[in-house]
Amino acid sequence: MVLVHGGFVDGSGWLGVYQELKNDGYPVIIVQNPTNSLADDVAVTRRAIAGAKSDVILVGHSYGGVVVSEAGNDPKVSRLVYIAAFAPDTDESVAALIANPAPGAPVPPILPPIDGFLMLDQEKFAASFAADVAPDEAQFMADSQVPWGVAALEGKVTKPAWRAKPSWYLVARDDKMIPPAAQRAMANRAGATVSETPGSHAVYVANPKAVAALIERVATATLASK
What we know:
This protein is α/β, with parallel strands linked by helices. The protein has helices spanning about 15-25, 40-50, 65-70, 95, 120-130, 135-145, 150-155, 180-190, 205, 210-225, and strands at about 1-5, 30, 55-60, 75-85, 115-120, 150, 165-170, 195.
């Protein structure tokens, strides 16, 4: 498996999922994307895929879903998994997908860009991104944010891999960054196999067992199809 993080965070958030998968005998690679631009992140992810010793299940959280939608065209990628993630179509970006939120939908507390990079309001980070994460860990996530490049936010997918490869999607029902209704709409458009779990946007941190269980189901289905 190759796990791809989203914006404002780094790959360390996958630790719990990584441990669950490794304990069950799966090889795992964690991508550390700079999140400066989509092109850079796709290149970094493709290098991780190239380093895998076998076919890859490519997993993306949040903005990482944009990255896997593009990088997933690599021939070594057999399956895609979206965890509360953006699943853009051709010529779509995160900027386009969040441009017209539904009435009453929560608005992520993204601060105005500085030098081409975005951050979340630290005081509102936990409530919006990590409401079910332990308070001290959520505070650490807020204080250790990785600036997210506007160029990454605006990066457009050229050829979504989900159009050619099987995909799965885990909806986080309590997400206040990507509304659950938007997650379901993207998942259905992608023809993904959809499952849902209670959880915030940081469901992969707060409930790694549920996330790992889905990835392992995908791995089992992959083996069964061979």
